[in-house]
Design a protein that fits this description.
The structure holds 2 protein chains of 2 kinds. Chain A has 14 helices and 4 strands. Chain A is mainly alpha-helical. Chain B starts with a strand and ends in a 27-residue tail after the last helix. The chains are: A mainly alpha, B alpha+beta.
């Protein structure tokens, strides 16, 4: 405070020096009451100094207003600069890098490894893998995710990639409907994620076999494929990524739909940042998942399209699960499903 | 060429809210939208000050930078305008704005917030000057009539100054010298890259290259 006043005095003197002769006592001459001790109130310079020192995490100056709008009472919040840099530069880089990495990884797998083929069961026997409701939930999530990703990426790259091509009017209309549908489709996505979280959790706890499976990368790059249960370690991994990522993106997304005054600007900035970062991660993961679930591991697409898979395919990739199903320990239709692991009593 | 800026002398502002009312009336701003507001700091305590705040028409405007549909433009006078035809009401400009200037007509949750509305420095929008469409969306275009923003024109204590940045800074400097204190103009160090304080003379123009991210010039 005192340093500030000193600086101020120096600045003033620099300006006042030539004209001091006639104006130094002008105020007193006019009978104006002066209080040189008067302190600047919540000085902006002071605020910026505090912000630089990191003493004020949500650096803003708030006062009172007569209008019934709480957020209008914030006079100034320069911390938006960080979010601006993130929105304009940081998030674009994160999205671009993760997306390109995922595409490159998939392309490399396809060209150097090729799709993993399988031997069909000679008698054409098939085994039920997903019920209709499971598949519905999966495709509800998948379709809504793709739509959400496209409408969401429009907010990250649209201004750079699409707007120069289609023009302002078309891009504005497109983005407006993109925004509205993003906000609605989000709930379909949440519904799908919720179902899968609850219905598939029992098959997705990590166990000892998963460690072995992970160590050998599922035998994908040669070597014998380690045995797996209904879901192998990789599938379990994507399950948990979807659960936690889906939960995070749903919460931040819903928060961004609330009125700004509820969380405040800082809260909105954090919600937007988290939302877009989680989205970048999920998009990359889903690109890999889509490849491995279709071309990457042949025969696996049947599980989600037809609901049943070739018996030999199942024996190759999920022998422990096949064993259990065939020995009648687990029925897929109706009846209480038993957990693959004995679970402790609650 | 002038570089238009706002300057609120917090030593003079008496919190009469006339600027707020004048703005609402002149532009027939809908209910719930305040392009300008008066914020009182330390209300009721020693050292109380009031500041009239609206869009400061920043040198390198954060709103223009983060807008996902690039609806902002900056005139050669440095005035930040936006096109309501292009705006989709996402709210990002409010996240980025240091001064809380952007306003949204629909407070409803879940869907869109409606087209953003903010201070136009009484300079309308991208439409033809003072056309009915321009008035409907952005209010009166006083600048096209050779007038300054109404809020500052009718400020009874002349606390709120509008006009060429260099000119209003000179007026303010004279005041500071006469009274001997109060050298801080709220928002200047955040908004104006060329002149972080009225004590440092800034440029009298706004050049498109000042805006790193707002691609559109005048």
């Amino acid at each position: 405070m005192s340093i500030l006043r000193l600086l101020l005095t120096i600045v003033l003197l620099a300006f006042a020096a030539p004209s001091f002769a006639q104006s130094s006592n002008a105020a007193q001459d006019r009978g104006v009451h002066l209080n040189p001790q008067r302190e600047p109130v919540a000085d902006e310079q002071q605020l910026l100094t505090i912000l630089r020192d990191g003493r004020l995490p949500d650096g803003k100056v708030t006062g009172n207003v007569y209008i019934p709008d709480a957020k209008a009472a914030v006079l100034i919040q320069p911390e938006g600069r960080f979010w601006r840099d993130f929105k304009v530069t940081g998030s674009r880089w994160v999205h671009a890098i993760l997306f390109l990495l995922a595409v490159a990884a998939v392309a490399a797998l396809f060209f150097f490894r090729g799709g993993q083929t399988y031997e069909r069961d000679p008698q054409g026997r098939r085994i039920k893998r997903f019920r209709a409701v499971d598949r519905f939930a999966h495709w509800l999530t998948a379709v809504s995710f793709v739509l959400l990703a496209l409408t969401g990426l429009n907010f990250v790259f649209g201004r750079v990639l699409v707007q120069p091509l289609v023009g302002d009017a078309a891009f504005s209309t497109m983005s407006y409907w993109g925004l509205v549908s993003h906000n609605f489709i989000g709930f379909a996505f949440i519904l799908g994620i919720l179902y899968m979280t609850v219905a598939w959790m029992q098959d997705n706890w990590f166990g000892r076999v998963d460690v072995e499976w992970m160590k050998r990368a599922g035998g994908y790059f040669g070597g014998e494929e380690p045995p797996a249960e209904k879901f192998n370690a990789g599938q379990k991994l994507i399950y948990w990524i979807s659960v936690f990522g889906g939960f995070g993106i749903a919460v931040t997304g819903i928060l961004m739909m609330t009125a700004i005054s509820w969380l405040g600007v800082t809260g909105m900035q954090i919600a937007q940042g988290a939302h877009t970062l989680i989205a970048a991660g999920l998009i990359a993961v889903v690109i890999g998942h889509a490849y491995l679930g279709s071309v990457g591991v042949q025969g696996s697409f049947d599980a989600m399209s037809k609901g049943d898979v070739d018996l030999e395919w199942a024996r190759t990739h999920h022998p422990l699960w096949v064993e259990r199903v065939l020995s009648g320990q687990e029925t897929l239709r109706g009846g209480p499903r038993r957990s693959p692991h004995p679970e402790p009593a609650e | 060429m002038a570089r238009m800026k706002f300057l609120c002398d917090s030593e003079r502002c008496i919190e009469c809210n006339a600027c707020v009312t004048a703005c609402k009336n002149e532009h027939e701003v809908p209910w719930g939208i305040n392009r300008r507001r008066v914020v009182t700091l330390n209300d009721g305590k020693p050292g109380e000050r009031s500041v009239s705040m609206a869009c400061m028409h920043c040198t390198d405007a954060p709103c223009a930078s983060v807008c996902p549909v690039d609806c902002f433009l900056q005139t050669a006078d440095g005035i930040v305008l936006h096109s309501k035809d292009v705006c989709i009401g996402c709210g990002y400009c409010f996240y980025a704005c240091p001064f809380g200037a952007p306003q949204y007509p629909k407070a409803s949750n879940f869907a869109s917030k409606g087209k953003m509305d903010k201070c136009t420095y009484c300079a309308g929008g991208p439409e033809i000057d003072n056309s009915p469409a321009s008035f409907e969306k952005y209010g009166r275009n006083r600048l096209a009539e050779g007038k300054l923003p109404l809020c500052s024109e009718m400020c009874s204590t002349k606390a709120l100054l509008a006009g060429d940045g260099e000119m209003i800074a000179t007026i303010y400097r004279e005041r500071v010298l006469r009274r001997g204190y109060g050298s801080n103009a709220w928002g200047w160090s955040t908004a104006y890259r060329d002149s972080p304080s009225p004590m440092s003379p800034g440029n009298s123009e706004w050049k498109p290259e000042y805006a790193a991210e707002s691609r559109r010039g005048a």
